[in-house]
Structure prediction request, 192 residues.
Amino acid sequence: MNAREEILASVRGALRTADRTEAPVPRGYRTVVPPNVVDLFAERVVDYRAALTRCTSAELPDAIREALGPARKVLVPAGFPVKLDGVPDAADLDTFDAVVTTAALGIATTGTLVLDHGPGQGRRALSLVPDVHVCVLREDRIVPGVPQAVAALDPARPQTWISGPSATSDIELTRVEGVHGPRTLHVIVVAD
Prediction:
């Protein structure tokens, strides 16, 4: 018997005699709720080099237009809450300058947006291919931390977690944006 066979025999023996009851996993994660989750979220979004606008519902259409800047061809997923000029969905995403979506929620401590691809969010590729992503998030959809986000999300739905514009660094730590997704992320946080 060689060493590999000895190890596997030992593992098999341990499995046969092991108590197969599962130990409970404690889920009492330590959570600290920051005093103002909206301000913390905004600070973290900017730390990730994303643009940020805070506005009211009445100011939202103008804020979106301003965030889109010179973008000519814009994707707007079905169920988006504001009437915008744009294409609701398209097969050839490379031909679009920008996409405007909503988010299921935001995470204050990490500045992360979570899309679960419900109404106003579209399919996953919409938020990954165009060069500009404008994402609208209501203040009441911001949670303090990751444990609260996981608890609030439906694990059966697809999810995309976004922390800043797409970025990577080479071996010399030179940051390059837009390699694996949108080069520009503009988050609009809506009060009311």
